[in-house]
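WARN  no MSA supplied for this record, continuing single-sequence
INFO  ligand: flavin mononucleotide
INFO  echoing inputs
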Amino acid sequence: MAQKLRPAHPLETRVLLQGFDEPSSWTIDVYEKKLGGYAGARKAVAMAPDAIITEVKNSGLRGLGGAGFPAGMKWSFIPKNSGKPVYLVCNADEGEPGTFKDRQIMEHMPHRLVDGMISAASAIGSETGYIYVRCELRLAIERLEKAIEEAYAKGYLGKNIFGSGRNFDLTVHPGAGSYICGEETALIESLEGDRGQPRLKPPFPAVSGAFGCPTVVNNVATLANVPGILLNGAEWFLKLGQNTPRSAGTFVYSVSGDVKNPGFYELPLGTNLNVLLNEVCGGPLPGRKFKACYPGGSSSPLLTADEFDVKMDFDSLAAKGTMLGSGAVIVLDDRRSIPEVCMRTARFYAHESCGQCVPCREGTKWTYLMIKRLVKGEGTQADIDKALQACANMAGKTICVLSDACAMPVTSMIKKFRAEFEALARPASEVTPAVPKVSGQLAELMAAVRERQTR
Amino acid sequence: MAYEFSPETEKKFQWLLTRYPKKDAVLIPILHKVQSEIGWLSPESMEYVAGRLGLSPARVREVASFYTFFRLDRKGKYVLQVCQTMSCYLRGSDEIVAKLQQLLGIQAGETSADGLFSIEKVECLASCSTAPVMQVNDWDFHEELDLERVEKIVALLKQGRGGHACYEKRVADGGVA
Ligand SMILES: Cc1cc2nc3c(=O)[nH]c(=O)nc-3n(C[C@H](O)[C@H](O)[C@H](O)COP(=O)(O)O)c2cc1C
Ligand code: FES
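INFO  complex generated
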């Protein structure tokens, strides 16, 4: 079921979500006739590729999948005339806890994504595109497949699109339940029919991505922004945000947790977090006070309530030691125990580690176990430091940044709310020390070794 | 039990082969189709898919077992997937799971003896602002759940209503709690 629609908040500027509340907004008729859709793609197929890239570069459009890499620059890395096909892959794996912006676009505005993909494909000279969607998002998949079918019927996809002489084929590719497949190289492995284990970079996808060919991977919202930029110009996009290339356009913030009106809100990039939470989202639940929040998905370091006076953009949040990430604000109020929240966060990453790098596979698990011991009243002061140590030992030491995604929030929680963790610690004499649990052959082997040592 | 593609799955398979430059890429989409057809990935079905794609059965199992969505064991007719991730936890997903366990007499991860229900705890379903959420059979989405609605949903499913592959149909059948 699609999420309930609500009218735009007065502070919202709906660009990506323009036409969202139109009945049947997901059909080609409404998108094209009522909302002026596909004008961007029509324009793009007639433009020189470099002109598209320049316009997008000038607009300041940054990747909205989490890292904020400038989209136009990423496209410019695609080698010209490599003799190989170029692939355009849309990252619609949306798995970062707290994030639901892409799903909204796909369910309500699937054509805007197709429109954007045609435009991006024209820029990079791609004739084949894939939308890698989380398989759990059934309605999104159904609407995208229907949208693609409609676009083929109109000649907007397939051979000689819009009569331009260009070709572009587009296919929806379902994921299969794995957070790590949102990482672009894992996504490519998965698209190719393998286990979703990230690849070492370099080579970067722009040189050797899907099927060994130059590939651009972009997030849903990044691509859906392109038609607007081509139609209205870079200047227009810059002004939607803070009028700087580092902070341009609007941003769809996903807000959830302990807040009065959770939801998705399209606001100028760089809207103050206090404004977002207190004015747009109606403040805390009745009788409650804000305690902290993750500003950019569960991978982002926590901000305490007295740090909420911050602009929600890439640079301002980085300056505060956290990140915008996917723009998913998860709010915690004064009822919440930070160690409990921390344990849940660590558990997620321990579960989702793909297991190929030892520091991540073991580090995420140890972090989770240490915090769990504390929460269960079986942990000591030393366990707090062991968790911190495990975090320090995995962050930055692995193929992808999943280990960092676990280490960053956990470390921030322990640093900012250490007293809460310490309150749970018990004297070492009262608890059994943590030892790795082993079973089967390894346990037998260890028992044998121990026996030999005591003999 | 021997397995081969139904005519519909065969059609999808042939179409998929035209969409990718390499055959291997068809593997995950076709496993989805097989699972939606027979409810899980039986060893025979994986072996059959391997044969059709010219892959070793071990390779197919290796891939299938990596992804949590693929079911290598038979599950209940209705698989109740409750999101347990942060935003849902904050809005009471633990109580939802406890309620289901109490109503069905099974633990999360188990299947009821009559083969009707399985409870699964899953990670964020990208519906965090309408937490807590539960998905029935990978499709039927229930948002802003409370314990009363959980009871109603289970009661409807026990009568064989709800759990359809389409929300509109569910409304038409009165399967909406
Ligand atoms: C563990 C992990 C998970 C990720 N998950 C997603 C995701 O669900 N969706 C997404 O768009 N990007 C995700 N990313 C970021 C992608 O690797 C990549 O940077 C992004 O798709 C590029 O698109 P953009 O430049 O348009 O943002 C993830 C990265 C990591 C390390
Ligand atoms: S946390 Fe449950 S849907 Fe996102």
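Chain A has a mean pLDDT of 95.
INFO  checksum written, moving to next record
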